[in-house]
Amino acid sequence: MKNRIIKSLLLVFAVTALVGCSSNASEESGKPEKIVLDYAYYSPVSLVLKEKKWVEELFEAEGIEVDYVLSQGGNKAIEFLNSKSADFGSAAGGAAFLAKAKGSPIEVVYNFSKPEWIALVAIDPTIQTVKDLKGKKIAATIGTDMHTFLLRALEDNGLSEKDVEVINLLPGDGATAILTGEVDAWAGLDPHMARVEKEANARLIFRNVNYNTYGTLSVRQDFAEKYPEYVTKVIGVYEKARKWVIENPEETTEILAREAKIDIEIAKIQMSRNDFSVSKPVEEQKDSVISAGELLKVKKIIDPKTDVKKVVDELINPKYFGEY
User: Fold this and answer.
1) Which residues of 213-222 are buried (b: 16+ CB within 10 A; e: fewer)?
2) Distance of CA 320 to the CA centre of its chain
3) Please, which residues bridge with residue 69 across strands?
4) pLDDT for 109-164, tens place per residue?
5) CATH architecture for residues 33-115+212-320
6) Among residues 114, 263, 305, 309, which one has the fewest Cβ atoms lying within 10 Å of its Cβ?
7) What is the pLDDT of residues 218-261, one digit of tens each?
């Protein structure tokens, strides 16, 4: 009896040891079981990537599962990253900075475009300039470039957030709110902004392309640290999609219209406001985000003691960018 017990215990220890070795081998293989990317209507490159299934093709031989989640705005992309619901997320550089400044463990590793995708929008004919917004309700998505854009526009015109009532709405809901008259103006985002322009003769009462930070792809730091090779691989397939977008603007526009369920003419407006020529994170991009960050600091949206440059340097990381 005693010998049988000893043999049983030895068998348990042996199985445990084998399981342990198997787990360690899996962890040390440097290969994720699954990669989750987001896609967004404000990122035509991500839509092409999803449509063409190039990520799935790339990782099929390695047995890596690929999945997608829809980001309705940059804040949602950040939420997906923070909750580990996605490994890669699409957001404006300013939104990524705000998240990083508040402790989100993310890094910007790629630019999907340099867009002019945000402007201040009004339909009411009495609102012609930013100064006409005093005392008005303005829709904006808090924690994104839309909000930062609004703050900068107000400041440029001698106003502040205290002079208006900011209604926190996602981009699609903001478009609906201005169409129904629930708000007087809206810090809009394409493709919703292009749709409101086309369908309701909305006017862009304030534009400044330099207040639009780059469209960026962020990765969770823990994913990047564990699987750096796969960050580079994802960037590589994004590059394939970006170059395809440049070479096939008409088909890209059709994909955008179909995915976002918008009229082709609206999709053309959005596409015309995107520059797909710069994909590797660059110093000029840092300057743009630093400017937005300093304003957030002054407005106390982030800790006034924040070292903005340090946060930006830690956020924007081109080291995973390969030779493409």
Assistant:
1) bbbbbbbbbe
2) 18
3) 38
4) 999 999 999 999 999 999 999 999 999 999 999 878 899 999 999 999 999 999 99
5) 3-Layer(aba) Sandwich (3.40)
6) 305
7) 999 999 999 999 999 999 999 999 999 999 999 999 999 999 99
- Hey, which residues does 203 pair with through a beta bridge? 122
- Please say whether the beta carbons of 157 and 181 come within 8 A: no
Token readout for 96 is 């990524």
CB atoms within 10 A of CB 157: 15
Domain boundaries, the chain: 33-115+212-320, 118-211
User: What span, in angstroms and rounded, lies between the C-alpha atoms of 24 and 32?
Assistant: 13
Residue 122 C-alpha from the chain's centroid? 25
C-alpha to C-alpha distance for 130 and 121, rounded to whole angstroms = 10
Q: What pTM does this model have?
A: 0.84
The whole-angstrom separation of Cα 175 and Cα 187 is 9
Looking at the domain that runs over 118-211, which CATH code has it been given? 3.40.190.10
DSSP code per residue over 169-209: --HHHHHHHHHHTSSSEEEEETTHHHHHHHHH--EEEE--G
- The secondary structure of 99-157, three-state, reads HHHCCCCEEEEEEEEEECCEEEEECCCCCCCHHHHCCCEEEECCCCHHHHHHHHHHHHC
Two tokens, residue 254: 């059709």
For residue 306 the two structure tokens come to 């924040």
